[in-house]
Amino acid sequence: MEKNGLFILYYFWQFFSIPVGGMKTSSAKAKGRRFQQWVRDQLIEQLGVHPEDIESRSMGAGGEDLIMARAAREKFPYSIECKNQESLNIWKSYEQATENSGDYEPVVFIKRNNQKPLVIVDANYFIKLHEKDLKCDDRHT
C-alpha cells in the first residue's frame, strides 16, 4: 500500500508541478499557439489573402511556424518564427528562424505579457528594404 501511495503522490507531483519558469508546459504551448494564430490572423487581414493560404503549424512541429501558400508567399516572402515568452534568448530564436527559413528571409515575432508584439529581422536586410526610399529622399533635399 505504501508503494502505491508513493506512486500516486509522485504521479500527482509530476502532473501538477509547475516548472521553474512558472507555467505548465501545456499552458506555455497554448500561450504560444494563441500568439502564432494572432500573427496568422494579422497577416491574412493585412495581405488580403484567403484564410487557407496561411496555416498555423501545430506546436512542437519542426520548421516554420506559419506555412504559406504561393498567394501569401508572393505578398510576404518571409519565414516566420513566433515566440510568446517572458524570458527569451533572441539570438537563439533568430538562429532557429534562420535554420528553418529555406530561401526566405527569417523573421521572428516576439511577445510577452503586457507588452506589444515586436519583430526581429536582420539589420542589413531592414536597411535595404528602405534603401530605395532613402535614395529618393536624398534627391529631394
Q: Compute the CA-based radius of gyration.
A: 20 Å
Low-confidence stretches are 4-20
- How many extended strands? 5
The protein's oligomeric status is single chain
CATH architecture field? 3-Layer(aba) Sandwich
Sheet with most strands: strand arrangement: 3-4-5
What amount of the residues lies in strands? 15-25%
Distance between the termini: 86 Å
Task: Tell me the count of domains.
Answer: 1
Name the overall outline.
globular
Major sheet details = 3 strands, mixed
Helix content: 40-55%
The ordered H/E elements are HHEEHEHEEHH
CATH topology: Trna Endonuclease, Chain: A, domain 1
Count up the helices: 6
**Estimated structural class:** alpha+beta
Mean residue pLDDT: 83
CATH class: Alpha Beta
Short description:
The chain has 141 residues and is α+β, with helices and mostly antiparallel strands. It has helices at residues 2-16, 25-47, 70-75, 90-100, 123-129, 131-139; strands spanning 54-56, 66-68, 78-84, 105-111, 118-120. The strands form two sheets. A three-stranded mixed sheet has the order 3-4-5. The chain has a two-stranded antiparallel ribbon with strand order 1-2.
